[in-house]
Each structure stands twice: as C-alpha cells, then as structure tokens.
Amino acid sequence: EVQLVESGGGLVQPGRSLRLSCAASGFNFGDYAMSWFRQAPGMGLEWVGFIRGRAYGGTTQYAASVKGRFSISRDDSKSIAYLQMNSLKTEDTAVYYCTKGYYYMDVWGKGTTVTVSS
Amino acid sequence: EIVLTQSPGKLSLSPGERATLSCRASQSVSSRYLAWYQQKPGQAPRLLIYGASNRATGIPDRFSGSGSGTDFTLTISRLEPEDFVVYYCQQYGSLGITFGQGTRLEIK
User: Fold this and answer.
1) Which of A46, A50, A97, A105 to mutate to test the interface with B (most CBs of B within 10 A)?
2) What was the pLDDT predicted at B85?
3) What is the DSSP secondary-structure string of chain A?
4) Contact A15, A87 (CB under 8 A)
5) Per the CB < 8 Å rule, is B47 touching A45?
6) Which mean pLDDT values do the consecutive 10-residue runs of chain B (108 residues) have?
7) How many CB pairs under 8 A join A and B?
C-alpha cells in the first residue's frame, strides 16, 4: 500500500525553526518528486514547495511566501522527505501535507499541524 | 503566477442532480498540468482528475473533467450524498503550483 506519514508538527514560537518529516512506503521513493502543501484553518490549499526525484537531480522549487525561509530535502535511502522551516511567522500556522508528485498529487499524507504562536 | 478562479464559490443542488464546476485560469494552462481534487472535512485532499480529463485510480465514472486553455470543468453526473464537500482545481507551471479557491457543494 502506498502511504505517506508526516510528523514533527507542534507549537513553536515566532522566529523559531521546525523540521517536518514525511515517511514514504509502497513505491520507489527516489523515482518521484515530493511536494509539501499547507492549509491554514478554514482556508484553501497552498503550495509550499517540491523536490524532484533523482533522475532530475533532486532540484527544488518554492512558493514566494516561503522562499528563503523554508527548504526541502530528501533521504532516498530512508524514503523520507523533509521540510525545514526557519524564521517561522504566525501566518505559517497550518496543517502541512506531504504528497507524491508535482504535476498532480496522487498520494497525500494525513497532515501534521504546525501552530506558530507566542 | 497563474491565478485559478473557481465558480461558483458555493453550489446548492440535490442528490441525483448534475453538478458543473468551473475553473478559469488567468493565462493558458497545459491540459497535462490541470487537476481536480475533492476534500472532505478533516481529511487530506483526494485526486479526482489529472491531465484535465483522466480519472484517478478508484474514482467513480460519475466524475469527469474537460476543458483546455483557460477554461476547465469538473462534472459530477449524478450527485451522491458523499459528494457534497469541497472541490479544488490545481495547475502546475514554470512558476510553480497554484490552486483555485474551491467550490463548496451543498445539499439543497
């Protein structure tokens, strides 16, 4: 069964950092791009960024709202994708989802909640 | 970036009726990179349609997608009670990924 499980969410103060993980199973992880999305309470879906698979050099692309603060990496040997979030702001409060793919997202994790508050 | 505008924002229909949801792009989108998702309360989105018109695995055939260029449509031919949730269109382009603001289907 193809599965994605996010972890690492929680309550963090503004200006601090947090790293989310996304553990994948059931598919050849290294062959696929992995994306991160978020959804603030009561709001729509927002793209955060993605990292391409090894055939495309693992290159990354980010939304303007997080560029320079967030970074995505991957460990293909462990089938884990990471979202490193620095200089967090209150407006980064959301449920964060990792997904397989980037043209379209056919597998989603259940999400992990990040709350940025003092 | 490409802005996707979904209409209507809310659609009130009855079970058994046909639903037509629109997604209009601010500039042309390759059909290959247009997708539709369904999101139920408290759950992650689920892929319904990719490549503008291809049903994802396990999606009932009452869901269909069409369109090209700047105008795309998701049609649900006969609404079931579980279909009354929120739907998003999404595109991928050189500047990244954007979503429409969503259409909420509610029971009339």
Assistant:
1) A105
2) 98
3) --EEEEE--EEE-TT--EEEEEEEESS-GGGS-EEEEEE-TT---EEEEEE--GGGTT-EEE-TTTBTTEEEEEETTTTEEEEEE-S--GGG-EEEEEEE-SSS--EE---EEEEE--
4) yes
5) no
6) 96 98 97 98 98 98 98 98 98 94 97
7) 55
